[in-house]
Amino acid sequence: MLKIEDSPAAPSLRTPDWYKTATRWTQLTFVEDDPQRYDPAFWVDVFKRTKSNAICLSAGGYIAYYPSEIPLHYVSKFIGDTDPFGTLVAEARKLDMHVMARVDPHAIHADAAEAHPEWVSLTVDRQPREHWAMPGIFVTCAYSSYNFDFMTKVIVEIAEKYDIDALFGNRWQGHGVCYCKACEDNFRAASGYDLPETSTASDPVWQAWAAWRRTTLTRLVAHWDNEVKKVRPHASFIPNMSGSSLMEFDLSVIKKHCPILFVDHQGRRNVEPAWSAGRNGKRIRATFRDRPVGLITSIGPEEIPRWKDSVQTGPEIEQWVHAGITQGLFPWFTKFNACIPDDRWVQPVANAFNLHAEVEPVIGSMLPSAEIAIIDPATTLRHWDPDKRHLAELNDLGFYHALVEARLPFEFLSDQIMSAETLSRYKLVILANATYLSDAQCQALRDFVAAGGSVVAAHQTSLHNEKGAARADFGLADVFGVTMKSPPRSGVRNSYIALNGSHPINQGYDGAQRIIGGTEVVEVAPITEIEQPFLAIPDFPDLPMEEVYPRLPPQGVGVAARTTEAGGRVVYIPWNIGEVFWTYMAPDQGRLIANAVKWALGKRPEIEVTGRGVFDVGLHSDDKGRALCLLNLTNPMMMKGPLRDTWPVGPLTVSLEIPQGKSVKSARLLVSGQAVPFDIADNRATVSVPDIETMEVVHLSWE
């Protein structure tokens, strides 16, 4: 067993800043029979080939892969006299790698459940919750003494015995409501309610439980982190956030205890665009902009049948990693089962990780510098049932895809931290359908507009307060320049908006008099001087076919646009344009979103890419230069993987705005590794990119 003093790695690695150089991660999740069968030398070779500088390795929880001395901590029955966890920790430290121990407390074996029934999660009918996938084992109560006491002992034992920098908790936050006696008593004491028996988000009992759960998990993370630091002051407990948003957590605990964050969205599932990896990273960064974020990528398919011991195609693996790099995420790959029945994943992972190693010296120190932000509507999403929350994101997805097609760099900004300071980083913010906003959040946006900021908003944005109560009018009516005439209608058919005059927002529709409108609409009327590039056409029957014609001429606001006294611009679209575009992908709605954003921006976009293809773009800057990442999405499998092959594109012309006070010294293409000529005109640098296979990074260095 490796002792602390035996570690051959340089002491300089074991500092509170260890995470800053942990930028390429190998994760190995052991299965129970690995100790007898796996080859440590294979994994050492993978560390080297991928230039990994950090490892996340299974240690304990459901199964221990080291000789644990804690009663009821189940140790792999195949371990014998070996120590698979300790062996690879030692090998990683020889390579000066950072080490994080993975624990998974979500299930226990029958002997532990029998000895401590209070550790087991109970169903709504107060029966022990047997594991849904593995009969004979039981799901634990995340809010009980199992986590607060037993798992604390496990975490401390690992930190005491092994040379690690952190512990990583997987499936640590529970699986819904637990109906055990402790949860009943603790929740009632905190809220006065009995436990909720349904997950209806509008139910005040459910809202109270969600808040109690956040508070309990906040205490748990703080408790585990503090216990780790008692043993190793430089180390941290890092909770797996599972998804792509921090809305389920108390931000104070993240700020204090989590120096590094990870997106556990390991690959595409069903119909999902290739830019999803970058989107999830942006959503994590929407709250903590300068905190490093890693993207966990599976080497296997991520479909519901969970073929976890299979292998994804090489182009799909590489593109998922590249999508993260484009948006400033460092790569992490995960392999379940240390034995290798199919090694086709190794070279693609090595390719992607080596590309990151090539570009990291430039973009690793940079921050995103987009002038556009989509508001991540955490306040709204909390008012949706967890199993239906994805429906609330359809409007955001539509706006996201429209901006990707328009090749506009942008970030997310969480409405949990909206303030004059955080909003001031952007020239334009987008509220795709932020239905629930507090008075304070509305005021922050109002102040942003008063300071010259621009807004593009749609549908029911600000019609409810943060507690769910409907307002009589938009909370941002004065910003939009319109008032609500009648409540929102859903299930609308044959809805259209008509082009009205000539305006930058209605350009590009040559030959059209009208385009598709919303399936959900809000009737509004102006309360100040506005421009109306589109007028609403009252909807009409869609059957019988003989009845399919408009009864009334265009009337009412289809799109409202205005220039503010402070010089900014506001566009409000009173229907669900994002959802309509995302669901049906008609290009007219994507064009309308792009036109509205470009007009509201009030200036030439800071980057422009000319040439055929579809690209996700990420702009990064520091005092030394600016880097534009171009991810090539052009592929027949762009919206549903896996990719079969890559489809190179080019040539492209890239124009980048030069920040005030800067001048260009050089231009390089980092992936192809070549200096390129550049032209300067109108305070912009123009560079030619001959071709892109998977991705390219255009790097301008300042004098």
Indicate the topology:
Elements: E1 25-29, H1 34-37, H2 40-49, E2 54-61, H3 84-94, E3 98-104, E4 107-108, H4 110-115, E5 138-139, H5 145-161, E6 166-169, H6 181-191, H7 204-231, E7 236-239, H8 251-257, E8 261-263, H9 276-285, E9 293-298, H10 314-326, E10 330-336, H11 346-363, E11 367-368, E12 372-376, H12 378-381, H13 389-392, H14 394-405, E13 411-414, H15 420-423, E14 428-431, H16 439-450, E15 454-458, H17 477-480, E16 482-489, E17 496-499, E18 514-516, E19 521-526, E20 531-537, E21 557-563, E22 569-573, H18 577-584, H19 587-601, E23 607-610, E24 615-622, E25 625-632, E26 652-657, E27 664-669, E28 674-675, E29 678-681, E30 684-689, E31 695-702
Parallel strand pairs: 1-2, 1-10, 2-3, 3-6, 6-7, 8-9, 9-10, 12-13, 12-14, 14-15, 15-22
Antiparallel strand pairs: 4-5, 11-24, 16-19, 17-18, 17-20, 20-21, 21-22, 23-26, 24-25, 25-31, 26-30, 27-28, 27-31, 29-30
Helix pairs in contact: 2-3, 5-7, 9-10, 10-11, 14-18, 14-19, 18-19
